[in-house]
Amino acid sequence: MALTTASRNLSLVCITLSALAGCATSPEYITPLAVSEAGYMAFDCDQLAQQQASLGKQLTEFSELQRSARSGDTFGVILIGLPMSTITGSNVSDKIAKLKGEIQALQKAADAKNCNLTPIDVLPPKPSPSSGTDFQ
Q1: Most C-beta atoms within 10 A of its C-beta, which of 49, 75, 102, 112?
Q2: Where are the beta strands (DSSP E) in the chain?
Q3: Computed from CA positions of residues 34, 98, 17, 74, in that sequence, does the dihedral angle turn out positive or negative?
Q4: Nearest to 43 by CA among 102, 119, 113, 101
Q5: Closest CA to 38 of 109, 134, 113
Q6: Per residue in 23-40, pLDDT tens?
Q7: Is 41 helix (H, G, I), strand (E, B) or coil?
Q8: The model's pTM
Q9: Termini Cα distance of the chain
Q10: CA 136, CA 133: separation in Å to the nearest integer?
């Protein structure tokens, strides 16, 4: 009987960890995709500034969607043992990674052209040594 209870507990732990591993990542922790700045080299500084503003707005909007997906995942794991974004398709991490990559590429082009744009920070935060494990 003790073996059965231990096996059951181990199964529950494995299921919970699997479900949590599938949860939507916090937008701050999504790594940018590699995007070439070549597509932005034909832009002048004003065009780069306008495009940066547009990309920044899109990143903000998709980040809010991702936070909602993450909240839904927590709710889904608690209720049914599955992240809701897996079921609903609301995880937009791929779009966020692409937007972050576009912003980095644009900023590289702006630097190469000596444009004076305020950079948008798109890199995931580095865990501090004193904080231990950061949950994403």
Answers
A1: 102
A2: none
A3: positive
A4: 113
A5: 109
A6: 767 788 889 999 999 999
A7: coil
A8: 0.69
A9: 37
A10: 9
